[in-house]
Design brief:
- The chain is of the alpha+beta class and 529 residues long.
- The protein folds into three domains: 114 residues, Uridine Diphospho-n-acetylenolpyruvylglucosamine Reductase, domain 2, CATH 3.30.43; 114 residues, Uridine Diphospho-n-acetylenolpyruvylglucosamine Reductase, domain 3 (2-Layer Sandwich), CATH 3.30.465; 181 residues, Vanillyl-alcohol Oxidase, Chain A, domain 3 (3-Layer(aba) Sandwich).
- The chain contains 17 helices and 18 strands.
- Helix 2 crosses helix 5.
- The chain binds flavin-adenine dinucleotide (FAD).
- The site of flavin-adenine dinucleotide has 33 residues, from strand 3, helix 7 and strand 10.
Length: 529
């Protein structure tokens, strides 16, 4: 067929579908009620432009654009009736009040990285409030601060800071496509954590839409709500429009390194893992070390790879000298180290080739969405050598689950456990992330891989924090408890794992700001009844 003819046919088909979807939307009572309500505060052509009902030809692509876990992108996954995509703050206020009027739940999505899909899946009729259009960033280097809207990604924030200054950065996550909205409201950690703490420790102000649709800044919302949205997960309290954050200083040159040891080849590998546990949490604050423990195969035999990856806020000679003193078993040499600019270390940590222009951080689709499951734990006393030996056996037996161990200590020991809702401070040596990814669709694969992660988590009970067994809120894991009735007791199960004693204050804040519990999800903070 001639290409111009093909084009005309495609255009005609598109117009037919488009008209069909418009007329369908016009006959959909939910769409009509929402549009009518929104049109009372927004001009109606603007209101219809931000709504995607399920018959809109763009509905599927808008929905899927920010699904970051393929487990929640199947035909059985519950879908929103309508996706609302605000382009102005006033649209968010209108969406909050109108969703209540129409009687639908609202799921708020910024970057869509929630590991359990709680920002875009729900078991009852719901709308998604999708924040991706609200992503402006304004950097004020003279005051070392920035306003960042919640739909921005971490990569966009890092890049914008870098464009303004090569000696400033921000302590936040390793993956550049993570959204500011979820990440900062749930704490947010990365390679600057030992020097500067978590992202939410650097929030100076915020703009939030409350349950009445009012836009409030720090003064307007008061210190209790401002406390709650810095680590307690904003989804229980309102919709964050933007955060004002304090930037931090980074040197012009930093150093990264990676040392790998395979248990099958190296009798010393268990010593490296054992000693890492106490050194990584007590060494110089300028050094962050992550230990990755991964099942591997060597000469057709299953084994475990121990990888130590590090970022040092200084030069290569400095870190080589430091670790030859503190951690000689690692055998770090100057040759293992690469000096680079801080922004390039951001790329290095996310496995992007060094030398790639930093503007790659503006790409919102660097990573494909795998099927994945994550769980977390906190380790407070080193796992003994024989414990590590038994862990290697368990990991090789299971075959697919890896552990990413992230060192605490440093600044994390200096802040009190009640300063923000994020309470995992002094006393924690490191946090474990259990991680399994797969690419086969279907229930059988899902069952196989998720049960491996659960079995390893169960096995680790003997080595990790207890009463409560702690978990990191941003590593969402519905296995630790969910709620169907939003009672204080049900919330306490996961609430104390995520926030320990701060659960009580979060419940008080919730009771004060959203007593009827409009802002809710399967693991939200319930109001006191
Ligand atoms: C590939 C990958 C890498 C990661 N790396 C790290 C890391 O290095 N460090 C780390 O700490 N975490 C990391 N995480 C976890 C990540 O921090 C959390 O999943 C975070 O909540 C994601 O934020 P988001 O806006 O992208 O997610 P979303 O799925 O959009 O939101 C997560 C939660 O926050 C709520 N929410 C989102 N926006 C708003 C808003 N504007 N107002 C109110 N509530 C809102 C949602 O409703 C949901 O409950 C990673 C996750 C993934 C998938």
């Amino acid at each position: 067929m001639h290409s111009s003819m093909r084009l005309s046919l495609s255009l005609a088909l598109f117009l037919v579908l488009f008209n069909f979807s418009l007329s369908y939307a016009a006959s959909d009572p939910t769409y009509q009620s929402l549009l009518q309500c929104l049109s009372q505060s927004i001009p109606s052509q603007n209101a219809s432009a931000i709504l995607f009902s399920s018959n809109n030809p763009s509905y599927a692509s808008v929905l899927q654009a920010y699904i970051r876990n393929a487990r929640f992108n199947t035909s059985e996954t519950p879908k929103p009736a309508i996706i609302i995509t605000p382009t102005e703050e006033s649209h968010v206020s209108a969406a909050v009040t109108c969703s209540q009027k129409v009687g639908f739940q609202l799921k708020v999505r910024s970057g869509g990285h929630d590991y359990e899909g709680l920002s875009y899946v729900f078991g009852k009729p719901f709308f998604i409030l999708d924040m991706f259009n609200l992503r402006s960033i304004s950097i004020d280097i003279s005051n070392e601060s920035a306003w960042v809207q919640s739909g921005a990604t971490l990569g966009e924030l890092y890049y914008n800071i870098w464009e303004s200054s090569n000696v400033h950065g921000f302590p936040a996550g390793v993956c550049p496509t993570v959204g500011v909205g979820g990440h900062l409201s749930g704490a947010g950690y990365g390679t600057l954590m030992r020097k500067y703490g978590v992202s939410s420790d650097h929030i100076m102000d915020a703009r939030i839409v409350d349950v009445n649709g009012k836009i409030l800044d720090r003064n307007g919302m008061g210190e209790d709500l401002f406390w709650a949205i810095r680590g307690g997960g904003a989804a229980s309290f309102g919709v964050v429009l933007a955060y004002k954050v304090k930037l931090v200083r980074v040197p012009e040159t930093v150093t990264v390194f990676r040392v790998d040891r395979l248990l099958a080849d190296d009798a010393n590998a268990t010593d490296v893992a054992y000693n890492w546990q106490s050194v990584a949490a007590t060494t110089d604050n300028n050094l962050f070390m992550r230990m990755l423990l991964q099942p591997a195969t060597r000469n057709r035999r299953r084994t475990v790879r121990v990888s130590i990856r590090g970022l040092y806020l200084g030069d290569a000679n400095g870190v080589a000298t430091l670790l030859n003193n503190d951690f000689p078993e690692l055998g770090l040499t100057r040759e293992n180290c690469t000096e680079m600019r801080w922004i390039d270390s951001v790329l290095w940590w996310t496995n992007i080739d060094v030398g790639t222009p930093a503007a790659v951080l503006l790409d919102r689709n660097i990573n494909d969405a795998d099927f994945l499951k994550r769980k977390s734990d906190y380790v407070q006393t080193p796992i003994p050598r024989d414990g590590l030996e038994s862990l290697w056996q368990k990991m090789t037996q299971l075959g697919n689950v890896g552990l990413a161990c992230n060192a605490y200590g440093g600044r994390m020991d200096e802040l009190s456990a009640t300063e923000t809702p994020f309470s995992h401070r002094a006393g924690n040596l490191y946090k474990i992330q259990y991680s399994v990814n797969w690419d086969e669709a279907g229930n059988e694969a899902d069952m196989n891989y998720t049960s491996q992660a659960r079995e390893l988590h169960e096995f680790m009970t003997q080595f990790v924090s207890k009463n409560p067994r702690r978990a990191y809120f941003n590593y969402r894991d519905i296995d630790i408890g969910t709620t169907e009735n939003w009672s204080y007791e049900q919330g306490k199960v996961y609430g104390e794992s995520y926030f320990t004693g701060n659960y009580e204050r979060l419940v008080d804040v919730k009771t004060a700001v959203d007593p009827k519990n409009f802002f809710r999800n399967e693991q939200s903070i319930p109001p006191r009844t």
